[in-house]
Amino acid sequence: MTEDQKVAYLAGLVDADGSIIMAKSKNSRYRHPAVIIANASKSIMVWLEVNFGGVGWNNNASKKNPKFRDCYFWRLVGTQAVDLLKQIAPYLNEEMKTKRANMLIARNISRGGGRYTDAEREQKLQLERDFIATSRCPERWAA
User: SUPFAM superfamilies given for it (predicted)?
Assistant: First the structure.
């Protein structure tokens, strides 16, 4: 598979089974960009880790209830997520995901440690507000 084919395949996975979000960790003041994919195929999650980095994990649903299938997750965060969005954005078909990807590509100023000037801090907070406004339920994510 060529690199272009891999990127296009990943865009299809994001369109079908993925999310483009701004996640907030427990120890952070600010949200950070993230790409997350959930799928029942462990081999796809391993392929994602090998080809794009990130972290994969299993929810172990079958251990909790034998009627359930395990679900596997893959996540890429921060500047790595934005770099990935730059690659897959031309291939995305889902309107909201395309809008969110382009917003993060154009306006992201994330950097480790959360050290921002006052102007950068306001830009970051405005990006968060605008991003949350694209949600189906923006009131759910209000600070």
Answer: Homing endonucleases (SSF55608)
- What's phi and psi for 59, nearest 5 deg? -85, -5
In tens, the pLDDT along 2-49 reads: 999 999 999 999 999 999 999 887 777 788 899 999 998 999 999 999
> 95-107 vs 118-133: helix axis angle to the nearest 10?
180
CA dihedral 80→119→114→79, nearest 10 degrees, is: 0
CATH code (residue 105): 3.10.28.10
Domain count of the fold of the chain = 1
Q: Which domain holds residue 18?
A: 3-141
CB 103 within 8 A of CB 130: yes
